[in-house]
Design goal:
The chain has about 160 residues and is α+β, with helices and mostly antiparallel strands. It has a single domain, classed as Aminopeptidase (3-Layer(aba) Sandwich), CATH 3.40.630.30. It has six helices and six strands. The mean pLDDT is about 95. Keywords: Transferase.
Length: about 160
């Protein structure tokens, strides 16, 4: 994961675009692991089935960085550049959304992307999400779009 977080192109759309070093990544992974205990959900490793290679992550988290959307659970993803454009993020995020609604009984899942991150917005649309607001991420001053999917909409689109 440290190699993924050290890639400026991968991190371009994450917060202020800063890369993360190995120590920062280790701290983030520890925080992600503790979310499973405190929230009952968290991030999943995304592995390539045929090789076992770590491609990145997807999963659910509370978007504390954007208080105006709380209470909420966000689906997110981050993959290494060599794994872009293969449908992995969409497949993995769809599994996380399914887990959130079907296993955790969530009422609503959001996803947040910086304005201009068209690839992430395409994934959100494929997940059945729709834009509900545009605002500013107070941690970095960048404009973001918030997409949303309710449990009722999820049930309707999965039938």
């Amino acid at each position: 994961m440290a190699a993924v977080n050290a890639d400026p192109e991968v991190m371009r759309w994450i917060r202020d675009g800063s890369v993360r070093d190995e120590q920062q990544t280790r701290g983030a992974v520890q925080a992600w692991e503790s979310e499973w205990e405190s929230q009952g959900f968290g991030l999943f490793a995304v592995e390539i089935r045929s090789t076992g290679e770590l491609a990145g992550f997807t999963g659910l988290s509370v978007p504390d960085f954007l208080p105006e959307v709380l209470p909420a659970v966000e689906v997110g993803w981050r993959l290494g550049r060599s794994h872009w454009g293969q449908g992995l993020a969409t497949e993995a995020a769809a599994a996380a959304v399914r887990f959130g609604f079907e296993e955790r009984g969530l009422e609503r899942i959001v996803s947040i992307a910086q304005v201009g991150n068209d690839a992430s917005e395409r994934i959100m649309t494929k997940l059945g999400m729709h834009p509900v607001r545009e605002t500013v991420n107070p941690t970095c001053g960048r404009r973001v779009r918030v997409f949303e999917l309710s449990s009722d909409q999820y049930v309707t689109t999965t039938r």
